[in-house]
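Query structure, 76 tokens:
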């Protein structure tokens, strides 16, 4: 796994706090991850507003295409 910048880690930590350390897609509070709404590789910012808080199961489903995440460009 790639090492993320401190700005990125801070954004994920703040998003997790915002969501009470729980998945936004299911009731799980296990193995909580941060997922970029607007993908990092496409210029998605490392901000809490661009982070979807998900458990590992839901995160895997997002990456497998089983769950679709609507994107919004916050860079206006």
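Result returned for the query:
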């Amino acid at each position: 796994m790639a090492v993320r910048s401190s700005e990125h880690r801070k954004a994920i930590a703040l998003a997790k706090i915002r969501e009470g350390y729980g998945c936004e897609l299911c009731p799980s509070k296990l193995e909580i991850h941060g997922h970029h709404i607007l993908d990092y590789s496409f210029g998605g910012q490392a901000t809490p507003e661009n982070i979807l808080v998900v458990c590992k199961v839901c995160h895997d489903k997002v990456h497998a295409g089983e769950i679709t995440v609507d994107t919004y460009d916050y860079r206006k």
